[in-house]
Every structure is written in C-alpha cells, then in structure tokens.
Amino acid sequence: MRATVGDKLVQHGRVVGQHDQVSEVVEVMGQEGNPPYRVRFPDGHEAVMSPGPDCQVRHEEKKQRSK
C-alpha cells in the first residue's frame, strides 16, 4: 500500500450497516509512500494509522492545467 499527501484512505465497514470511514492523508511517515500515515477525518481530528486489509487508498486525481 502506497499513498501520497492528499490521497484518501478508505476504511471499509466491517459489519452490515456500518459506513466506510474516509480520511485524507496529511503526512506520509514511512519511506517511499509506505505506512504509517497521519490522516485527518472530516470532523477535523487527526490520527496516525497503519492501514490493514480492510483499507483502500484512493489516489488524488491530478488536474491538468491548460495553458
């Protein structure tokens, strides 16, 4: 699993009815994009996470600027 700042970390719900938790990677603390990551949740709190198999990285879409 590799991430960069700005990517979304999605932790999938483990039981029926539990929603996914989505956070934004604000710091990559491992080498070459590897965990652990400092993430920020929508309510503003931050945590350090080493994602498990129930997580997925959604890479930030790079917007191309037209000249």
Automatic annotation (TrEMBL):
<protein>
    <recommendedName>
        <fullName>DUF1918 domain-containing protein</fullName>
    </recommendedName>
</protein>
<feature type="compositionally biased region" description="Basic and acidic residues">
    <location>
        <begin position="56"/>
        <end position="67"/>
    </location>
</feature>
<feature type="region of interest" description="Disordered">
    <location>
        <begin position="48"/>
        <end position="67"/>
    </location>
</feature>
<feature type="domain" description="DUF1918">
    <location>
        <begin position="1"/>
        <end position="57"/>
    </location>
</feature>
<dbReference type="InterPro" id="IPR015035">
    <property type="entry name" value="DUF1918"/>
</dbReference>
<dbReference type="Pfam" id="PF08940">
    <property type="entry name" value="DUF1918"/>
</dbReference>
